[in-house]
Design a protein that fits this description.
heterodimer, A: 115 residues, mainly alpha, two-stranded antiparallel ribbon, B: 180 residues, 77% helix, 0% strand, globular
Chain lengths: 115, 180
């Protein structure tokens, strides 16, 4: 990787103060140390964010949701709330989802006896 | 496989934001002494000159991942022309504008020898606008900004840069304070 110093901007030099008013403004880190720190910081943010994104694939309260992500997120939430889970009678651990109760206009098939 | 691109797009977006923060802060630091506790101005300027090497790969990764990802549904035209997407036009359009401004800043920087110093300085100040649009893009569309940790770090870095930008502006408007 080539240094970009040759074609990149260089600000006009800041005149150095001399005498008793001069403050020591030089930190201990050299230029290559700052570059390494900048690179590692960016890489660390990328790696950390990648891990976070992998752990939180569907963020339901994200400010902006692409259509497919929103569909998956809302479908998952509504199906979990509305559907009734009925344990299966078979020995496997699968569950059967049944639709919720609905009203109908058909006449009642049962009657209440009065004495 | 598609969700891999979606995850890379989210992570590289945050990495691009971090890289741009480093770039803007190191650009402000020589005049504001923001990084004087770390290094001298020569080293900070060397860092600022070098930051395209972290900003460009992160931004390119973000764009390429979004183009390859079927979740985001971003087309090649959406990358360069703002407000064309079928959803989140403002939020994604701000990201497009910030990319356009970043390209302007980089190109004018590489053509600096052909520009007058005054012209180059004005073009370079576009980077402030680029940072603001990128920050708004991150806030309005960033999926991971719902995380309190990521949100606090993003806001803190933006506030820090805003503070030093105002200090830099104050010194530019009142140069007698520098000489004092």
């Amino acid at each position: 990787m080539y240094a970009m110093k040759a074609s990149s901007p260089t600000l006009p030099p800041i005149p150095a103060k001399t005498g008793p008013g001069r403050r020591n403004r030089s930190g201990p880190v050299p230029g290559w140390g700052l570059k390494l720190g900048g690179f590692l910081t960016t890489l660390g943010v990328f790696a950390g964010s990648l891990g976070y994104a992998n752990a939180h694939l569907y963020v339901t309260n994200a400010p902006l949701q692409p259509a497919t992500v929103a569909l998956v997120a809302t479908a998952g939430a509504t199906s979990a709330a509305a559907a009734t889970a009925v344990p299966s009678t078979t020995t496997t651990s699968t569950t059967t989802l049944t639709s919720s109760v609905r009203t109908t206009t058909l006449p009642a098939v049962t009657a209440t006896k009065t004495s | 496989m598609d969700l891999v691109f979606w995850e890379i797009a989210r992570a590289s977006g945050l990495a691009a934001y971090a890289a741009l923060c480093i770039s803007v802060l190191s650009g402000l630091a020589p005049r504001t002494q923001a990084l004087s506790f770390l290094a001298n101005n020569r080293a900070v300027r060397a860092l600022h000159d070098w930051t395209p090497w972290i900003v460009i790969p992160a931004a390119l990764t973000h764009i390429l991942a979004l183009l390859l990802d079927a979740t985001a549904r971003i087309g090649i035209l959406d990358v360069f022309v703002p407000f064309l997407t079928s959803y989140g036009r403002l939020a994604i359009g701000l990201g497009t504008i910030s990319l356009d401004l970043l390209i302007i800043v980089l190109v004018t920087t590489w053509l600096r020898r052909r520009l007058s110093n005054n012209a180059w300085q004005w073009w370079h100040r576009v980077s402030y606008l680029g940072f603001v649009t990128m920050f708004l893009h991150a806030m309005l569309s960033g999926t991971d900004l719902t995380s309190p940790v990521i949100s606090v770090l993003s806001w803190a870095s933006a506030i820090g840069i805003g503070y030093y930008a105002l200090e830099r502006l104050g010194k530019a408007l009142n140069p007698s304070r520098i000489r004092a």
